[in-house]
Amino acid sequence: MKTRFDAIIIGGGILGVSTAYELAKAGMKNVCVLEKHYLASGSTGRCGGGFRQQWSTEANTRLAMDSVARLESIEEELGYKTEFFQGGYLILAHTEEEEKQFAANVEMQRRLGLNVEIVDPEEAGKIVPFLNKDLIRKATWCPKDGHINPFLLTQAYANAARRLGAEIHLWTNVTGIMKKSNTFFIMTENGDNYETPLLFNCAGGYSRTIGDMLNVEIPVDPYRHEILVTEPVERLWDPMVISFSVGLYARQEMSGGVVMGMGDPNEPVGTYVGSSMHFMYEMSKRFTKLFPKLDKLRIVRQWAGLYEMTADAQPILGPIDQIDSFIQACGFSGHGLMLAPAVSQLLAEMTVHGKSSEVIDSLNVKRLYELKDVVKEKSVV
Amino acid sequence: MTSLRIEAHPVLEFEKKKKVRFFFEGKEFEGFEGEPIAAALHAAGVKMLRRSPHKNRARGFFCAIGRCSSCIMEVDGEINTMTCITPLKEGMQVKMQKGHGEIKP
Fold first, then answer.
1. Dihedral angle computed from the Cα positions of residues A54, A59, A64 and A70, in that order, rounded to the nearest 10 degrees
2. First-to-last CA distance in chain B?
3. Could A234 and B98 be called an inter-chain contact, meaning their C-beta atoms sit closer than 8 Å?
4. Which of A61, A239, A268, A303 has the fewest CB atoms nearer than 10 Å to its CB?
5. A256–B100: do the CB atoms touch at under 8 Å?
6. Is A274 strand, coil or helix?
7. Kind of pairing, strands A299-309 and A89-93?
């Protein structure tokens, strides 16, 4: 088995495999992904599967717009069906404060060239017929957002990366890393030791642990985020619906089940991903408040994944000052899937062709050490 | 056609219940109050309870204990009702559901 690579990527989620693919595509073929369990076994496979361009910070909006542009042709490029569906995103404003925030967001997003509009409750009710219109004041609507199957997208990237010569080693848990004269020595639970001059940290909720192995702080904290799916029914609506005040998102999968999740401010830091009764009750209450006519939908399954949060809810990208050639792509704060297509491309261009990028520079980890000029992303459930 | 209803059983006793009318796909049927809807339909000779959403294949009575979802139908407007465990009532509107079942706004 080969253990020396030009680049090694820790993490077989969407970030890891898309980075491997982009690196191979840019010409760096001797690449390997190390994954603790199986592909998309972490946050990627547990996520809601939406992609949106409606953000409150410019960096996120730009990345998301590039990502969606890329996703539009990804099935063709990778030769794999991914259930990519641009059903739109409807974001609900319940309070005056939100209305103002959304107006500012929309102005910024439009300046960047995004097709997004503010709609009144009447129109929102036409887009999502079951919505309780009395609860909302306004909504923002972008028809080019949508959702995708995270497993299929990960598999699509993985297959394409393998075709280009990249390797993916599953069931390979990294237990220690040492850097000596420009080479990273990576120890794994299986007993195989890997060597590489270039290391990527795409470990999602475990990014801090990977940083700890090299004695460098990666300020990413994992929080459990629960989610459930209902029985399949015929098509109810196309878009993903989000409400930050009620604190939920809901979308209907292509197979008919409604996937919904919510944020819980009382969640402690940790990598526990068990399911709770509390979530099922609270989620049902919130969902039926917004969609009173769907109170008969039965829940068939619930699970949880990790949100890898940073202080400003924006990712950590690019190199770090303390250690050369240790590239970060983590801390996506629950939005890795939708940003991955653009981020992986930028990272590959940066490492292979030396092309610098404004977005990557602005999302360097330094900002979180100093906590100066940090603008928090507000559009997070 | 002879009815599939068991009239006499060597061990079990069946209490004679009240006869009620119900509707399947708009047509009037008769059954006993409180027996499973699927049993009443079966006794009346209706064996196909729905069609599978993807391949449109006939689906009927299968597990009979509310597990397998083979018998799900639209009952009084509520989709995905397991008719094998739902008791029959007077005047029930039972329909075959379309695909996975449609919820109307």
1. 150
2. 41
3. yes
4. A268
5. yes
6. coil
7. unpaired
Determine whether the interchain pair B103/A236 forms a contact, defined as Cβ–Cβ distance below 8 Å. Answer: yes
CATH of segment(s) A7-47+151-220+312-370? 3.50.50.60
H-helix segments, B2-76: 37-43
Distance from CA of B57 to the nearest CA of A (A): 17
For B96, residues 6+ apart whose C-beta sits below 8 A from its C-beta are B25, B48, B49, B50, B51, B73, B74
On whether ipTM exceeds 0.95, the answer is: no
Query: Where exactly are the structural domains of chain B?
Result: 19-95
CB A175 within 8 A of CB A188: yes
Q: What is the CATH number that goes with domain B19-95? A: 3.10.20.440
Q: Which residues of A touch B105 (CB under 8 A)?
A: 129-130, 293
The conformation of residue A135, written as its DSSP 8-state character, comes to G
Q: Say yes or no for a CB contact (<8 Å) between A233 and B105.
A: no
- Class for the domain spanning A86-146+221-309: alpha beta
Q: How far is CA B81 from CA A64, B66, B96, in A?
A: 42, 10, 11
Distance (Å, rounded) from C-alpha A127 to C-alpha A136?
Answer: 14
A242 Cβ contact list (under 8 Å, min separation 6): A52, A89, A90, A91, A92, A248, A249, A381
Contacts A293 to B, Cβ<8 Å = 103, 105
Query: Residue A258 — φ and ψ, nearest 5°?
Result: -95, 120
Selected for mutation to probe chain B from A234, A290, A296 (highest B CB count within 10 Å) is A234
Per the document, the length of chain A is 381
CB contact under 8 A, A234 and B103: yes
Distance, in angstroms, between A251 CA and closest chain B CA?
A: 15
Strand partners, A9: A33, A200
- pLDDT reported for residue A377: 83
- pLDDT tens, residue order, chain A (381 aa): 899 999 999 999 999 999 999 999 999 989 999 999 999 999 999 999 999 999 998 888 999 999 999 999 999 999 999 999 999 999 999 999 999 999 999 999 999 999 999 999 999 999 999 999 999 999 999 999 999 999 999 999 999 999 999 999 999 999 999 999 999 999 999 999 999 999 999 999 999 999 999 999 999 999 999 999 999 999 999 999 999 988 899 999 988 999 999 988 899 999 999 999 999 999 999 999 999 999 989 999 999 999 999 999 999 999 999 999 999 999 999 999 999 999 999 999 999 999 988 899 999 999 999 887 778 888 887
**Tell me, what's the pLDDT at A264?**
87
